[in-house]
Amino acid sequence: MPGMSASHQSFHVAVVGGGLVGKTAALALTQAGLRVALLAQPTAPRPADAVFDARIYALSSSSQTLLERLRVWQALDHSRLSPVYDMRVWGDAHAELHFSAFQASVAQLAWIVESSLIEQSLDAALRFQPNLTWIDTRAQGLDVKPDAAVLGLANGQVIEADLVVGADGAHSWVRAQIGSKVERRDYRQTGVVANFKAAKPHGETAYQWFKDGEIIALLPLPDGHVSLVWSARTEHASELIALDPAQLAAAVEKVTQGQLGALECVTPAQGFPLALQTVDRLVAPRVALVGDAAHLIHPLAGQGMNLGLRDAAALVDVIAKKEPFRDLGDPVLLRRYERSRREDIGALMIATDGLQRLFSLPGTVARAVRDTGMALVGAQPLIKRWLVSAALG
Question: Which of 10, 40, 94, 310 sits at 20 to 30 Å (Cα–Cα) from 249?
Fold first, then answer.
């Protein structure tokens, strides 16, 4: 397979981590003319009997634009994508919010996309990049020298790079090497995901319910399917995951008040822990963090992946605009990247964490406050337009 060896030992950039953000960053950097090493495993093929991925993302306009620029979006199987034209949100005291792409004067509010669909297109694009070397092993040693970062690999090889990009997730090895301090708050919730065939048409609408401190979302998929993301208390999540498909479908029908009629579970339930995670710095000499290595937020707004892709886009943009005399690992250059991301990351963390706290408060007073707040937002077109604009990235 082209580009899958580690014969070239010196690179402009080494990207550690092979999720969507890491692969997108690697592709964008190599398309910018840089020699890039990607330390990652290729995407595992989706099981032949799987109707849809368990992991689904709601991609914003900014993410779509980035993937279009990299010529990845055009290569996706668009029959497996679903636009979101409307979003309906219900509070636990029956207040309702409606967001419309038409009213916001945008083509769509988001695109619902399977994780493996994007990863497979990224993999295909990466294989055609002559400046990219794909190394299927992990890093186990990092030594930052004045003129290069030296990475020791698990296969015994050693590579050098001007810049190391840590895209290796919430438990980032790269982040640990630079001593970036992490603050993590466990929400004591688990995100339960599964996919269903719905009896009633979803109308390209995303639905969300806030109920008893938990958040339930149904996102539209092609051919009358929907994707569930249920942010449930950990003990409740364990009970949901233990249900058989028919029992889980019945539980979802009940909590969503039959909004989409009878449901048939087509993808087994999976769970992932939810937490808020911040780091004290995104950069160090010759190192930059992106994606979940740099931040972790609650999925209630579906913005975590979009935030990570904006990290990748910002890093590439800062590098593209650097002065000719600056090295890629120059702390001045990397601080520009860090400053460019602080406001976006901070604002989204405050918003998602604040909403999670607000809707987790027990009692009738808290419920009344939430209901009043949602009603006020619903009555203000300018506020609703601003919220849509923020979600679009």
Answer: 94
Residues with Cβ within 8 Å of residue 327, at least 6 apart in sequence: 162, 333
Query: Alpha carbon of 19 to those of 53, 126, 248, 280, 309: distances in Å?
Result: 15, 13, 29, 23, 11
Q: Do the strands 158-166 and 36-39 form a parallel or antiparallel pair, or are they unpaired?
A: unpaired
- State how far the Cα of 97 lies from the Cα of 335, in Å rounded to an integer: 39
CB 17 within 8 A of CB 80: no
- pTM for the complete prediction? 0.90
Query: With contact defined as beta carbons under 8 Å apart, do 279 and 297 qualify?
Result: no
Q: Is residue 338 within 8 Å of residue 279, measured between CB atoms?
A: no
Separation of alpha carbons 360 and 352, rounded Å: 12
**Mean pLDDT, each 10-residue run in order, the chain (393 residues):** 52 95 98 96 71 89 96 95 93 76 88 93 94 94 95 94 97 96 94 97 94 90 96 96 97 96 95 95 97 92 90 97 95 97 90 76 61 54 53 54
C-alpha torsion sign, points 336, 339, 345, 348: negative
Give residues with Cβ within 8 angstroms of 231, minimum separation 6: 187, 189, 190, 191, 192, 214, 215, 216, 274, 298, 299, 300
Return the structure tokens found at 139.
Answer: 């890093």
Tokens representing 225 are 């399917």
The burial of 293, by beta-carbon neighbours within 10 Å (0-12 exposed, 13-18 middle, 19 or more buried), is given as buried
Pairing assessment for the beta strands 263-279 and 295-296 based on DSSP bridges = antiparallel
Pairing state between β 182-198 and 205-211: unpaired
Helices (H) then strands (E): counts for the chain: 10, 19
Q: Across 199-291, where does the E strand assignment appear?
A: 205-211, 214-221, 225-233, 263-279, 283-284, 287-289
- Residue 268 C-beta-side C-alpha neighbours within 13 Å: 8
